[in-house]
Specification:
alpha+beta, 14 helices, elongated, 3-stranded antiparallel beta sheet, DNA polymerase, domain 1
Length: about 425
Amino acid sequence: MVQKQRSKGSGSIYQNSRGQWVAAIEVGWTERGTRRRLTLKARTKAEVRERLAVAQRRIVSEGTVTSFATITIKRWAGLWLAQRQQSVRPGTYVSDRSAVNRWIVPTLGHIRLDALAPADVRKVASTQEAAGLALPTMQRTHAVLGKILADAVAEGYQVSQRARETSGPGVGPSSRQALSPENAMRILAAIAERSDVSRWVAALVAGLRPAEALGLTWDMVDLDAATMTLAWQLKALPYVERRDPTSGFRVPRGFESRHLIGAYHLVRPKTRAGIRVVPIVPWLAEALAAWQSAAPPSSYDLVWPRDDGAPRSAEFDRAQWYEIVDNAGVAVALPGGETRRPLLYEARHTAATLLLAGGIDDTTIKAVLGHSSVLSTQAYLHTDHTRTRAALTASAEMIGLGRYPGRNTLASLPPAPGASGLAGGRTPASQ
């Protein structure tokens, strides 16, 4: 009997001495001129035949390669993070690293990329839900896992399309809310005697992001022209080796930053739209002028530093805000009838809502708040501020801020229910 000759390039399948099924196929030549053979292993003949078919299709579409080997998700996630730190902002990297190390690797790390199934992907979200995590965190982790798998495919690893297209944990409404004008006025009454009242009015009226406020320096404030240039944000950058300042900082290529002290840096906003010149309403301009003479001296020229002049941490800033809203007796109602403290970032949402309520057009609001959907240029930063100044002034007047005759300007506002207020200029001990 004449054995039918196997066609060249079709590969061969056999079972080795250990009982594994093996597929072998020639994939070109080595640098020494010898044939290069690719071997694939599986537990069953059907499985190895499928792997061989996939390899043959990839050879047709991608050309010859040295290996179609796969690795575990834990191993690939480590390589992915090492690459990721070179291309994304430090804050994004830290968030990605947290998702990988806390949820993705503990749940899926032992699984090979080519063996990942949709049920495995869904297990990450179910584990987070069982731990009581909020939907936005679950969505963020799912997005990170999706990026990890997409980059693995781009690198040449096998990941099934079914796993990569597994649906996420769902989409829900944003948990952030804007404060009502009445609650904003209660907060203003609670901060009436604080010497740093300008810090919180800048958030409620001008919509400054917390990092923008903490990174604002006096050289970017022009009280004569009544404008402030928002070009930097205060961020604590991660060290290359955690908690080791001598290891340097983990930043991507081309990342622009100015080191202040410790981990604190001034960094550029995420988008060009974040760099903008914002008019200062008359009340805030006079409050800033009063604060300039009373503010702690800062070696870094920060507008709102700690009592010792050092940068305020985000944690300290939030603690200040929570003390204020507690004294104001302001809480946010939740769908289940429960309440929570307003988030500091919700002061920015309040600024946007006040602008909308004043009938301000979307383009102006985006210009004031620095939304990335606005196509900004350097020339745009020096445009006429008449319209944006009018918009911000109208917002300030909606919550009772007219002129700024002195420290007791806010004393005539409705008192916060049950609020005892804060001693003049008193702030908790800086951390």
